[in-house]
Amino acid sequence: xxxxxxxxxxxxxxxxxxxxxxxxxxxxxxxxxxxxxxxxxxxxxxxxxxxxxxxxxxxxxxxxxxxxxxxxxxxxxxxxxxxxxxxxxxxxxxxxxxxxxxxxxxxxxxxxxxxxxxxxxxxxxxxxxxxxxxxxxxxxxxxxxxxxxxxxxxxxxxxxxxxxxxxxxxxxxxxxxxxxxxxxxxxxxxxxxxxxxxxxxxxxxxxxxxxxxxxxxxxxxxxxxxxxxxxxxxxxxxxxxxxxxxxxxxxxxxxxxxxxxxxxxxxxxxxxxxxxxxxxxxxxxx
Amino acid sequence: xxxxxxxxxxxxxxxxxxxxxxxxxxxxxxxxxxxxxxxxxxxxxxxxxxxxxxxxxxxxxxxxxxxxxxxxxxxxxxxxxxxxxxxxxxxxxxxxxxxxxxxxxxxxxxxxxxxxxxxxxxxxxxxxxxxxxxxxxxxxxxxxxxxxxxxxxxxxxxxxxxxxxxxxxxxxxxxxxxxxxxxxxxxxxxxxxxxxxxxxxxxxxxxxxxxxxxxxxxxxxxxxxxxxxxxxxxxxxxxxxxxxxxxxxxxxxxxxxxxxxxxxxxxxxxxxxxxxxxxxxxxxxxxxxxxxxxxxxxxxxxxxxxxxxxxxxxxxxxxxxxxxxxxxxxxxxxxx
Lengths: 286, 336
Fold this sequence. Notes:
The structure holds two protein chains of two kinds. Chain A is an all-alpha fold.
């Protein structure tokens, strides 16, 4: 119970980090995130099974390719409509539809599409049998958050990221190119999505519809935690993760989605910027 | 074609300037200039509805429904409320009509007006606590609510649960359906256009442009936002009630994303902020998706592509482009 809640939280956090990074830095709500997640799964699968590239190498190349893809999407599509919120949402959602439905058309459906685990087998913790893969997810989330913290606070590019997020015009005058940084952030966000896919997908099969679920989960964690706040994400994913596990055990699986949606609703009504988001009272409500 | 040291200047055509106010009725030319873009679509749609086969008449009906949803979306966004959940209003109207018809056996000419008024009222009351939220935060609430209602009905199994309510009473024949929906659509469009350009409508637009300045002028913007919500959701609830009787069914599908996304897509393609643009967009998108139906799932891919290309390459929308060509002339002016 306790362990499964923790694992559920870690999965949610891992899904949300990439989305949150892109939004926090460039302000682009990347609705194509779910599609990118699914594409990375299928790309890794194809590299392993069609081109017979060894697993670690294909995982690595997937992360790089998807990162470049994300940056290209920014360069050629989002750059032109940056700042128009409605257009951004429509364009990224359109991209997501194009990618996911194309995958469905090509015929990536079935149980054979699953990624190998890093380590197979399971151990007993607190009276529950847990796959080692699930435990690895928790480890990866912790590692990733530490790495991101170091990256954004102690490297030149990372600091430029935060500069753009805080005050775009001032950072422009300090010689930081916002378009370049934003496309980097989009690429990095997509890479993180690919990483999440490679870590999480071995637990099940890769499905096209999974893309939409990932998007909703990432959105709910980001809203509850506060868009653009990394530590808010950790808290939010723990809250939602445990809430989902508890309702699934004691009520019925039907209610899990209602619980996370209700969490979003309550947060939006009472503190729209999320638990740890920066309070911008006048931008949220009048 | 671009020229060095020249810039493109756009000015209103003379006839546009002449036909701007009451003097337009003094001459045939001006009257024709004003009527042409309004009468042509109305007659064209009426003729199409008469001559097309049954299948395409159904397409016209669904295009009209989506057009009304899109017009209502555009009206709400002109009042500063960005809605991602037209499906909420639509679904509430649909369920009210379905329940009245199924449990109380009321005929459609009572259920539809009832669902329109009370659907609007109910949606407004539901969203009243969040009219204070702005921009993307309001949008997210409207995105969440229909999903929640959908899962709630699924989990509690009220009103037919997953299966919904079937076997509702249909319209007498297709002509009644066509007349009701086409009339409703044109009335909605022209009434809202008139409304938003009146002095009263100006307040709604000013809330979108700068809500704090509007408050500072001593206007209670929450009251006005609630009114705008009521008008917008009444339109959607009407569509929902209408479709319930047209398909003889109501159920969870009325809360799906399609009813939220398609109106926004239609507005983006047609041109946001003109009310006529979204209508035009809906009449491009709905038939297009019907034509593409033979491609199977690939049609959704095309659909997404059209959306992305339109948003990126034609950000102002079809309607603004056409109205510019109709009302203004362009000429090259030398840069001094």
